[in-house]
Write a structure and sequence with these properties.
By secondary structure, the protein is mainly beta. The protein is about 0% helix and about 50% strand. The strands form two sheets. Strands 3, 4, 5, 6, 7, 8, 9, 10, 11, 12 and 13 form an eleven-stranded antiparallel β-sheet that branches. A two-stranded antiparallel sheet has the order 1-2. The protein is globular and about 40 Å long.
Length: about 190
């Protein structure tokens, strides 16, 4: 599934919606758990480009919105920390990996210009103690930057919830994390 993070709109100065973000090598990768690719979430209102996700694939996606581009979907963070939790209090999450990028937010869709960023992923146990932490850098090398693969460390097991937070950014409200193809499992 070839997904390029940005396509030029006007001679490399402006960009359209994120249409295809994950490199094709993903299609040959073995998924360990459940793959949340967000492509099968129906639009609440046809043509709406941003909509809350809430519960999807048996987990609750807090502070993320679906950002569609044709039949492809990725999730975009709202200002602050986005997170994922089991759809009921006694469910636990094990996170394996995901694809991600960062870009300037636009009103209508996924992103515009890619931005350097660092994503901190933190996992919490049943007592809301941070027991798993991993950080990933997104270093932009050009205007058509691809999303990057992030495999979390093995401490992301049996968690109550997982938070995603963009660190190294100049203006938190102007940059969004883009996340796709999240590989995880849920247990009860």
């Amino acid at each position: 599934m070839l997904k390029s993070i940005l396509r030029p709109l006007v001679a490399g100065l402006a960009f359209q919606q994120l249409a295809h973000a994950v490199p094709s090598s993903l299609s040959t990768r073995t998924t360990i758990g459940t793959l949340a690719n967000f492509d099968d979430i129906p639009e609440v209102v046809p043509g709406t480009t941003l909509q809350p996700i809430n519960t999807y694939k048996n987990v609750f996606w807090r502070a993320f919105v679906l950002a569609t581009a044709g039949s492809d979907g990725v999730i975009r963070s709202l200002p602050g920390t986005g997170g994922v939790a089991g759809s009921s209090p006694n469910k636990r999450i094990t996170l394996f990996s995901f694809w991600w990028g960062a870009a300037l937010k636009t009103q209508e869709a996924v992103a515009s210009v890619p931005q350097n960023a660092q994503l901190t992923v933190t996992g919490y146990d049943a007592g809301d103690n941070a027991v798993a932490v991993d950080r990933f850098d997104y270093d932009v090398t050009g205007v058509s930057q691809q999303m990057v693969f992030a495999k979390v460390n093995t401490t992301f097991t049996n968690l109550k919830h997982v938070d995603f937070f963009l660190d190294r950014i100049a203006a938190a409200t102007l940059i969004a994390a883009l996340i796709d193809d999240v590989d995880f499992s849920v247990t009860q």
